[in-house]
Amino acid sequence: MAAPAATPPPLLEVEGVVVRFGGVVALAGVSFEVGHREIRGLIGPNGSGKTTLFNCISGLCRPAAGEIRFEGVALSRVPRHARARLGIGRTFQHTALFRSLTVRENVLAGAHPLAGSGFLANALRLGGRVRREEREAEETARRLLALLSLEAVADAPVGRLPFGTQKRVELARALAAGPKLLLLDEPAGGLNHEEVYRLARLLFRIRREFELSILLVEHHMHLVTSVSDRVVALDFGEKIADGTPEAVRAEPAVIRAYLGEGAAAHGDAA
Amino acid sequence: MSGPPIGSARASGAAGPDAPAASRQRRAIAFALLLAGAAVLIASAFLLSPFRLFQLTLAAGYAVAILGLNLVTGYNGQISLGHGAFYAAGAYTTAILMTHFDWPFWATLPVAGLASGALGYAVGFPALRLGGFYLALTTFSLAVAVPQILKHRAIEDWTGGVQGLFIAKPDPPAFLPIEADQWLYLTTLAISAALFLAAWNLVRGRIGRAMRAIRDHPVAAEAMGMDLAAVKTRTFAAGAALTGLAGALGAVAVEFVAPDSFTVMLSITLFVGMVVGGAASIGGAVVGGLFIVFVPNLAESISKAAPGAIYGVLLILLLFVLPGGAAGIGRLAVARLWRRDGGR
Question: Which residues form the ABC transporter domain (chain A) (predicted)?
């Protein structure tokens, strides 16, 4: 998993992003890039600004200064709901599924931006458009349910499933729109050792099959360093390291940030 | 290598190897039931007394009104306490076109739908941006204002003021040997069925998923590319249009529109019908329509002195027995039947 040498114009460019909450500076001018088909780790202790940065990319948070560009498009001009259609997919830290929908319906909902039929077309169903779109979405869902071993629970309401399964549903849902960039917010949270290992293999497989990039926000140091091509580390809203996992792990500022925050409990930081 | 399971995947019995055959069988059963139901409803036109037929005609209209409310509240999670206003808009549109312009009843329907849909859009557009309680209050105020607006001097010439407007039932075509109320019952039934089909089409596909996704988790829905404001306002307009069409159907059924038929109580009654039938259920709307027509009658036959109290008690008992509305018990029954012939 060597870093891809000299990628052509990067998929995502984060440039001098500043976010303030009242008087608190959450992000103090952070810049980095995510290349095509790259798995990029984003680490940092609690309160370092990881989640804020993540939210800026998905649009839940608006930078006070700086810009984020996706394939050259300035995201500050793209409304939140239009970002999925551009090719940005995401999962949520504590999962955010559509609870009353079945697993299959959740994945179908993820395919929403791929189709375009509106209210009237759906209500009347004249011509073949709605039917064709539905068929395509069903096919996408079937593939993803198989990939993530969700076939057995496909028609179960998602709210009653165990947490680990719900996380896989979220991943399937995020993949359904065929994103170019997948934002994963602590995918290893709540998983045991074995499950984390499987997740790592799954991420490689997803990148290969979907030809996408992954921005991985994660506490689990071992997962980040084992799957990422490059890692960026934040502390107190500032970038303290950016490079290969080995280099970032050896960076004194990173060691200090983690040990200082007591996050060394993970045991991997040092 | 197959997809690695993260966490335990519990297998649910239903998805056997002959799943397509089972689903085909299921569809055949549903279709047969639907045909049988249609046959019973059509036969009723020739078996029931004119008064019962009138009640059923009214119930069919109310069912459509509840369906419209259910799109908004049940499927999309937006509370509307003022759907009676859209019912009134549809009823008056039809009444005005029929009395002042001599339009035939059927021709007024699209206009009634469009007019109430437009009103819904106009109300929903600002209110939905404010969210839950504001929408509830905005729609509630609309429902409160409607009878007074309808009585207003400035439009009295059109609306007939306090007196309202009388309209005549459409005549049956000459070649059919049936009475006007039988004809109206059958046309109302056909129109309602078409509207139910359209609503079912709407909720079972892409748009219906977006409506429910937004209800369940708006932040995630937006991340999945759903335009919250657009889906919500359009759902509200679609729901208002359906309820307006129901108003048009109801107006010819009672052959009369007047401001005091469309008080806040109507909006609340529709809300009750929706809850009784079951939120986010298409079939439940039928039960809701029947409930709000027949149960008050039943209450009155039990006690002439306090029908309101009896109605209240019946309502509470019903919701106690069926917490998910009629649709809840229906789903449970279907699930049971499935397990019996599908599982094991």
Answer: 12-261
Structure tokens, B135: 């929408």
> Does the pLDDT value for residue A8 go beyond 70?
no
Residues A62-104 have pLDDT tens digits of 999 999 999 999 999 999 999 999 999 999 988 999 999 999 9
- Inspect the interface and report whether the beta carbons of B212 and A115 lie closer than 8 Å: no
A78, burial (CB in 10 Å: exposed 0-12, middle 13-18, buried 19+): middle
Strand-pair partners of B44: none
Domain segments of chain B as ranges: 50-263
Q: Which of B310, B279, B141 is nearest to B211 (CA)?
A: B279
Q: Which residues of B touch A92 (CB under 8 A)?
A: 219-220, 223
Choose among A85, A113, A167: nearest Cβ to B6.
A167
Using the Cβ of A159 and the Cβ atoms of chain B, whether some distance falls under 8 Å is answered with: no
Contact A130 B280 (CB under 8 A): no
**CB A80 to CB B223 under 8 A?**
yes
Length of chain B equals 344
* Rounded (5°) CA angle B21-A110-A10: 135
**For tokens 């990628």, what's the residue?**
A7
Q: How far is CA B312 from CA B63, B139, B269, B272, B324, in A?
A: 20, 24, 12, 11, 18
Predicted pLDDT of residue B18: 55
Please state at what angle helix B105-130 crosses helix B132-151, rounded to 10 degrees.
Answer: 140
**CB of B210 less than 8 A from some CB of A:** yes
Residue B12 has pLDDT above 80, yes or no: no
pLDDT single digits (tens) B145-187: 999 999 999 999 999 998 999 999 999 999 989 999 999 999 9
With a CB-CB cutoff of 8 Å, which residues 126-165 of chain B face chain A?
none
Angle at B80 between CA B96 and CA B77, to 5 degrees: 135
Partners of B198 on chain A (C-beta within 8 Å) are 123-124
Output Rg (C-alpha) for chain B, integer angstroms.
22
Which candidate in B1, B2, B6 is best for mutational testing of the A interface (most A CBs within 10 A)?
Answer: B6
Query: Residues of B with CB below 8 A from A175's CB?
Result: none
The model's pTM? 0.89
Please provide residue A267's backbone torsions phi and psi, each rounded to the nearest 5 degrees: 80, -10
Residue recorded with tokens 């998983």: A191
Instruction: Give me the residue from B7, B11, B225 closest to A162, CB to CB.
Output: B7
B320 to chain A, closest Cα gap in Å: 22
- Give the residue from chain B lying closest to A81, CA to CA: B225
Residue B334's pLDDT is what?
77
Closest CA–CA distance from residue A95 to any residue of chain B (Å): 9
| Closest by Cβ to B226, choosing from A59, A81, A205 | A81
Query: Is the pLDDT higher at B9 or at A90?
Result: A90
- Written in H, E and C, the secondary structure of chain A is CCCCCCCCCCCEEEEEEEEEECCEEEEEEEEEEECCCCEEEEECCCCCCHHHHHHHHHCCCCCCEEEEEECCEEHHHCCHHHHHHHCEEECCCCCCCCCCCEHHHHHHHHCHHHCCCCHHHHHHCCCCHHHHHHHHHHHHHHHHHHHCCCHHHCCCEHHHCCHHHHHHHHHHHHHCCCCCEEEEECCCCCCCHHHHHHHHHHHHHHHHHHCCEEEEECCCHHHHHHHCCEEEEEECCEEEEEECHHHHHHCHHHHHHHHHCCHHHHCCCC
